[in-house]
UniProtKB/TrEMBL annotation:
The gene is Syt15b. Keywords: Repeat. This is Synaptotagmin 15b. GO terms for molecular function: calcium ion binding; calcium-dependent phospholipid binding; clathrin binding; phosphatidylserine binding; SNARE binding. Pfam families: C2. InterPro entries: C2_dom (IPR000008), C2_domain_sf (IPR035892), Synaptotagmin (IPR001565), Synaptotagmin-15/17_C2A (IPR047897). The keyword Repeat applies. Residues 80-203, 215-336 form the C2 domain. Residues 11-49 are annotated as: Disordered. GO terms for biological process: calcium-ion regulated exocytosis. PANTHER family: SYNAPTOTAGMIN, SYNAPTOTAGMIN-15-RELATED. It comes from the Eukaryota. GO terms for cellular component: exocytic vesicle; plasma membrane.
Length: 353
């Protein structure tokens, strides 16, 4: 069983500053990250949302993530709502994703013309699971907060490229309401997870973000669940308009079907390769053992792959079916319909994302 480890405040020592976080004049020093009495969250409590295999780290070496001050000065685009810097590192040996939240700049202020009318904090999600998150401490009266906090997600190498890191920045107003300022996405398929390399990136915040489906194709999928046998059956039938990568002469495709419970891969199976068509017909089904008490924490990801002889196969797109913890929209509806009509085969077309 995974445990949620308590977040340990990170203290940046500064000469002449008392350990309590107070300055000699008795006021709080906002730049003292580890101030002893500063609340860890806007409510003064630790986040109660627990993510299996995910936790906050304690002390880090800030020199590893320090961004030059000149990065704070940049041409501010029109309708700009802020920029966030963070570092990402994937450790293959331990299958841990390390995310370091560094800083944010030019967040909107509640007071016009003021740069201290914002009390920000950040929640970090690992999509498709948007119900659970890890949360930073909040910073008081600043539109340019420094965080220097690290968080760890346990995620397997086989599934890490299917995940998207999402950072959502909040402002806590004087009525203790949490107002969303913006979001930033970092698809982990864009990260070199094989190299164990630490990468520092920045993203401009956006009001709305989504993983969009753009001309990657569609797939007809069926699901059925037998509660007596504790077995889920996934059927893949025909496909439409699978994407062909530029420069790839191959039109050979197959489907990977992966059953996960929470963040753990239980079983992965592959279909036969269908050749020389972007509209392949598979007509295959796959059975997985799935206990009734795991239905709410399970998901099934179907990944369409283009097979390239002599080269690494490429991901065309994917579909994730599951509970509200993992899926949205039509994929969530499909899962709920399967549970409500056990032993029946529920079939729908889904767009690859």
């Amino acid at each position: 069983m995974f445990r949620f480890l308590k977040q340990i405040p990170f203290t940046v020592p500064s000469q002449g500053t008392p350990p309590s976080g107070r300055r000699h004049d008795g006021r709080w020093d906002e730049n003292n990250v580890g101030g002893g009495s500063e609340p860890a969250s806007p409510t003064g409590k630790r986040p109660s949302v627990e993510i299996p295999g995910a936790y906050a780290l304690g002390s880090i070496d800030p020199t590893l993530y320090r961004i030059a001050d000149e990065d704070d000065i940049y041409e501010v685009p029109r309708d700009h709502i802020g920029r966030v810097w963070f570092a990402v590192e994937y450790e293959r040996e331990t299958e841990k994703l390390l995310v370091t939240l560094i800083k944010a700049r030019n967040l909107p202020s509640r007071s016009c013309g003021s740069d201290n009318g914002c009390d920000p904090f950040v929640r970090i999600y690992l999509i498709p699971d948007e119900r659970r998150y890890l949360q930073s401490k909040f910073r008081k009266k600043t539109c340019n907060p420094k965080f220097e906090e690290s968080f760890v997600f346990q995620v397997s190498l086989r599934s890490v490229e299917d995940r998207v890191l999402k950072l959502t920045v909040f402002d806590v107003d004087r009525h203790k309401r949490h107002n969303v300022l913006g979001h930033a996405l970092y698809p982990l398929r864009d990260h070199d997870c094989q190299s164990n390399e630490r990468v520092v990136v920045w993203r401009d915040l956006e009001k709305e973000v989504a993983e969009t489906a753009t001309n990657k194709g569609e797939l007809s999928v069926s699901t059925s669940y037998n509660n007596h046998l504790e077995r889920i059956t996934i059927g893949i039938f025909e496909a439409k308009d699978f994407k062909q990568f530029d420069g790839a002469n191959s039109l050979d495709y197959y489907i990977k079907v992966c059953l996960m419970v929470q963040n753990k891969v239980i079983k992965t199976k592959k279909s036969e390769i269908v050749r020389k068509t972007t509209c392949p017909t598979f007509n295959e089904s796959f059975n997985f053992k799935l206990p009734v008490n795991s239905l709410d924490t399970a998901s099934v990801t179907l990944t369409a792959m283009q097979h390239l002889t002599g080269h690494k196969d490429k991901v065309v797109g994917r579909i994730t079916l599951g509970s509200f913890m993992f899926a949205r929209g039509k994929e969530l509806e499909h899962w709920n319909e399967m549970i409500a009509n056990q032993k029946e085969q529920i079939t729908h077309w889904h767009v690859l994302t």
